[in-house]
Write a structure and sequence with these properties.
This protein has 264 residues and is of the alpha/beta class. Helices cover 42% and strands 16% of the residues. Helix 3 packs across helix 4 (72-95) and helix 7 (152-162) runs parallel beside helix 9. It is globular. The two termini are 20 Å apart.
């Protein structure tokens, strides 16, 4: 874990289950705790990019819908409303600590196009140069299967690679990766360190995500595999107490630590 002690640039990904209640309404207390920690990290000299889910979930609450739409157009409409609400809240909360945020809405097509990819990287670098905190989400309002990643876990790994991050931290609603389903097995234990991602790990991680989110532990393993293959160590940890990010960066064992593959 000591490998995280000297990081300069990190990506933090937060999921819908951390940002919103089951009602779809924003979990303001959780958002404030996360914003406080990130603001403090930036004050200390770190560069932080925040990959945030929640546009559709928050949009559902903002619109007063009984449940998340199942059709594409309904999800897109909820996302347009929810994204506005999310950025309004982030702008207001980070602004209370004197920080400016910049919004990035990405699609798979944007990243895979060489010219667009270069422009995205340049925009990220200028954000950091100007002292702004990039806040990234997938562009759900134009979501179709061909141009989206489908979940922000994998998007966070893509962003980490785009900006040459030193670490990726994925916040979720569990303490990390367990050796079996803790909801079914009271003796399930956290896997503290993963040296190699195997098919067995994916089998262990099988299951559905929350009712408002799209990912599950399997997508977090996919993200970790993608990031660590590029030399970026990854931590999957509970998002309820963002203060634990300090401990993780200090080298303490928090959640599940996926060891990076050294690249030349």
């Amino acid at each position: 874990m000591a490998v995280l002690k000297d990081v300069k640039r990190i990506v933090i990904k937060v999921g819908t289950s951390t940002l919103a209640y089951s009602t779809g309404k924003a979990n303001i207390r959780q958002m404030k705790k996360l914003v406080t920690v990130i603001s403090d990290l930036v004050n200390s000299g770190l560069e932080v990019a925040l990959v945030t889910s929640g546009a559709i979930g928050v949009g559902v609450g903002k619109l007063g819908l009984a449940e998340k739409p199942t059709d594409t157009a309904g999800k897109q409409a909820a996302a347009t409303v929810g994204q506005c609400e999310l950025m309004f809240m982030y702008d207001k909360m980070f602004g209370e600590y004197g920080h400016v945020v910049g919004q990035f809405l990405l699609t798979k097509r944007d990243v895979e196009n060489q010219d667009c990819r270069k422009n995205i990287i340049n925009a990220f670098e200028k954000n950091f140069e100007f002292g702004a905190i990039p806040v990234i989400n997938e562009n759900d309002s134009i979501a179709i299967d061909e141009i989206v990643y489908g979940d922000n876990d994998n998007l966070s790994a893509i962003v980490a690679k785009l900006i040459n991050a030193d670490a990726l931290i994925i916040l979720t609603d569990t303490d990390g990766l367990y050796d079996s389903n803790p909801k079914e097995n009271e003796y399930a234990r956290i896997i503290p360190v993963v040296e190699e991602i195997t098919e067995e790990l994916y089998e262990i991680a099988g299951g559905r995500g929350s009712t408002l989110g799209t990912g599950g532990m399997a997508t977090k393993i996919q993200a970790a595999q993608n990031a660590t293959a590029s030399g970026i160590p990854t931590i999957v940890m509970h998002g309820e107490n963002p203060e634990n990010i300090y401990k993780a960066l200090d080298g303490h064992q928090i959640g599940t630590f996926f060891v990076s593959k050294k690249t030349n």
